[in-house]
């Protein structure tokens, strides 16, 4: 599969916002030139959505992100957003997200926010108290799954993986990693 990764950790906040907004608008323009599709053709994945899709402010990136969440499925485009804090996401966007993977949440406020965001999508056999209990007691590498395509809520676990992530790459490290590609 073809993949494009944009690393923007070296940019300041204004440059990040400019780049993300430009990218989302270009992606929307490309998407609208595609024909409708009933199957997935491409995925836009954005890690650490904090600041780009907040519930209270209106940064330039918010409108194109909301449009993608509302319209992308019709064009065979999937959108995956990740955050460590559910308060980072606008409630209008949350209501347009069909599948949720929820890991361990640190505070009761975060759990309550997620339950409120799930709204009526929690399935007929579960109530808010049951969901609160499930989310409060999630173990490491266990996720709560709610999908518009399933009639119930599910828990699933992932296998243990060792990772040696050292953090964001510096510009010269990216250049070293890409040197053979540039040739």
Fold and architecture overview:
The protein has 183 residues and is an alpha+beta fold. 36% of the residues lie in helices and 13% in strands. It is built from six helices and five strands, in the order H-E-H-E-H-E-H-H-E-E-H. The strands form two sheets. The protein has a three-stranded antiparallel beta sheet, with no helix packed on it. Helix 1 (13-32) packs parallel to helix 2 and helix 4 packs across helix 5.
Relative strand content: 5-15%
Number of helices: 6
**Counted beta strands:** 5
Mean pLDDT: 88
Helix content: 25-40%
Provide the succession of SSEs.
HEHEHEHHEEH
User: Termini separation (Å)?
Assistant: 22 Å
Radius of gyration: 18 Å
- Morphology: globular
Biggest sheet architecture: 3 strands, antiparallel
Summarize the structure.
With 183 residues, this protein is an alpha+beta fold. It has six helices and five strands. α1 (13-32) packs parallel to α2 (62-71) and α4 packs across α5 (128-136).
Keywords:
183 residues; alpha+beta; three-stranded antiparallel β-sheet; 6 helices; 5 strands
């Amino acid at each position: 599969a073809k993949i494009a990764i944009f690393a923007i950790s070296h940019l300041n906040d204004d440059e990040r916002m400019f780049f993300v907004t430009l990218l989302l608008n270009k992606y929307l323009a490309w998407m609208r030139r595609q024909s409708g599709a009933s199957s997935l053709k491409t995925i836009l994945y954005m890690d650490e959505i904090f600041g780009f899709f907040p519930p209270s402010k209106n940064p330039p990136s918010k409108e194109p992100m909301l449009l993608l969440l509302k319209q992308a499925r019709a064009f065979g485009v999937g959108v995956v957003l990740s955050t460590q804090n559910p308060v980072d996401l606008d409630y209008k966007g949350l209501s347009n997200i069909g599948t949720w993977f929820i890991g361990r949440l640190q505070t009761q406020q975060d759990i309550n926010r997620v339950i409120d965001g799930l709204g009526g999508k929690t399935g007929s056999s579960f109530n808010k108290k049951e969901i609160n209990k499930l989310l409060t007691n999630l173990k490491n590498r266990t996720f709560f799954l709610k999908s518009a395509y399933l009639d119930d809520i599910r828990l699933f676990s992932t296998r243990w993986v060792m990772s040696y992530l050292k953090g964001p790459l510096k510009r010269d490290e990216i250049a070293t990693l890409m040197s053979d590609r540039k040739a």
